[in-house]
Amino acid sequence: MSPSIRHPVVLPAGQRKTWKLEPWAERHLAGMLLLHDVIPDRTSQNDTAWKIWLALDRFRLSDKDLFLPYWETCGISGNADGVNTAVTAYLNAGEKRMLMVLFNNRDTEHRFRLVPDIRRLFGASGSVEGKDLETGAELFRGQGEFTLDVPKRDFRLIELKFREQKGMGNGLRSISGVGVE
Fold first, then answer.
1. What is the pTM of this model?
2. Distance CA 133, CA 99 (A)
3. What's the pLDDT tens digit per position in 79-137?
4. Secondary structure of 18-47 in the HEC alphabet?
5. Residue 47's closest CA among 36, 55, 59, 37?
6. In the chain, at which end, N or C, are there fewer CB atoms within 10 A of the end residue's CB?
7. DSSP of 56-93, one letter per residue?
8. Over pLDDT 70: what percentage of the chain?
9. Closest to 104 measured CA to CA, from 85, 77, 87, 89
């Protein structure tokens, strides 16, 4: 088999003849590609690729974004093992946003535990807001640990937006928020 057609081995045998993938197989294959900085095309990925393109457009993915692959320490810790579960990210430092690709290669749903190093990623103390880029759903807000479920053999595209922690000014603020000047 020539290298240019090696990819059929990841397809279920019944789908190799027609090249028509089942939706779960499209998402599984697309997740593997996204994890490795490859955006699926619509020649074989149809609906899945279209949804991915829309999500990446919402993020405004750019060649200037910093690719943070799962095989390197990238400022996001948690329970991804880098083999059956992995997190790859794209950091837009100027706009203080990050796109995470959460990939589950298991035959069961996986609950990702994510702990972003906010200071390392965004250069300041603060919090993040998480949003699902495919559905538009707001997922979480805060500073610490987050959990997200990813179905078996699937992925999720999650946007983190940084919110800088408001300074305490001269440090003389009352609990009610009325400043002492």
1. 0.78
2. 9
3. 899 889 999 999 999 999 999 999 999 999 999 999 999 889 999 989 999 999 999 99
4. CCCCCHHHHHHHHHHHHHCCCCCCHHHHHH
5. 55
6. C
7. HHHHT--TTSEEE-TTS--SEEES--SSSEEEEEEEET
8. 77
9. 85
